[in-house]
Amino acid sequence: MDYAESAKANGIKLELSAFKPRDCWRKFHGKMRYFHHPITKVGYGLALQEWYLVKAQIDGDRPNAKTYHHHIELFEQVLTYWEKFGTPTTERQLRKQVADFVELVKKELEKPVLLERVWHFDFTQNNKAFQSEFANRMQYIRLGTLEYQLLDKWNDRLERMSSEATEKKPQTIRYWYDAYMARMNEKIGNKIVEKSADNRRHTLAEFKKYCDMQLHITTLGEDFLKKYFAHLDKLKLVRISKFKYFASAKMFIRWCSQDPHCDLEEPTLLASRDFVFRELDGKGRKRMEKRKLLWSPEEFNMPLPDEYRSYLLLMLNCGFRHIDLDNLQHTDIDWQSGRIIIQRNKLNQSDSAPVISYKLWDSTLTALQQQKTDAPKYFFGRVGNKISCWWKDNRERNGLKGKRLDYLRKTGATTVDQYELGLSDFYLGESLSKTSQIHYSFIDGEPNKKLDRAIQYLGATFGLASQPTQTIELTGEVIAQLKKMKII
Questions:
Q1: Which of 92, 320, 396, 439 lies most in the core, judged by the most C-beta atoms within 10 Å?
Q2: Model confidence over 73-118: pLDDT tens digits?
Q3: Alpha-carbon distances of 252 from 200, 288, 343, 458, rounded to whole Å
Q4: SS3 348
Q5: Distance between CA atoms of 473 and 36, rounded to whole angstroms?
């Protein structure tokens, strides 16, 4: 197998073709040209160098070639300007037509015989934006000749592009989107918010699809917000997805407007409360459908490997998410009192997020003792997406097709609220809402009797603990009466 056959087998497209009768390479450019080097990799490299020299000489020296190169150079500078500074909405069609014109000239240049001038008359008649901008009056006569030049407007633009090349940052939506995602990745590196870049990339996917990423960043103004909101509102998505997509777009626009090197000014409508996505039939029916996804005791107590049983126990006992399991540290577990004392990982940068003391069931403590590792800091090592991947692969064989792990936390919150309404916020470790709780009352990490009893009730519901003991609080009046009766 010679080099040409090997390249073809590996999907490599060669610029020159092999000519086996003479053991050399050839190329058609006006006429067939032969390069007498063997059909080997080294021979191809030598032939390619010779071809480039021949092509440069042909294109530069043959009659009328300079006129074609002149037009390509001029209009490629125009395209570079838009790429550098972005395309205003009013010039989107013009940009496309300029790109088409450059391709037309390049195809003409490939012909063996070149006309004295670039034939553009059919093109300009069919592309009015291009004709108006670059072939108006006297320009129309000179377009296609070596004397053709751009008008002062474009000469000024290109001069500014040249002078600001090392100073001004590009102003395309694409440039600022890439800069934004790079910033998100920096946050991951600093462990501020894990998976931020992946989540933001997902919620901005529709934004990327909707936008022309080569447009000037200033096109992301109030008119864009209205149109993008209307676009999302028509999509067949659940309300929360529409909300997240729109919120991510607004965060991106706000971030851009706060950068001193970006031309975008923050749109006034960015803080508007008029952008509200609504459910056609309301939310009540959907809430009742979600209720069907809660776990039953029979489903929870299915046979599982010990490792995954410990994960599920913590998800129910303490309302843990995957990220909480991943970040559980040895120091968070008080083995003597049988408690986990922890602040939600999702809210650990917030002053208003409480530190909760969770009473563990005996079954949870036993499972944790069996899974204890030698990892220096994190109790389970780092589990990452291990749990969710295993669950997707194995839930069907356990007869739980469609059952979601995140609904264990919701099942726990629902059961805790059934025991005493309002305790679920504490069970979930949600942010405190009252000023007195945030700034004046520091009971973080202390046991809460009501929460302990609610968790005990949750465990009893799932056959993991005994029912909580009932207690009666005596008022002062009742105590006085009991003393009179000499009962106490």
A1: 320
A2: 899 989 888 887 888 888 889 999 999 999 999 888 877 778 888 8
A3: 9, 35, 29, 42
A4: coil
A5: 104
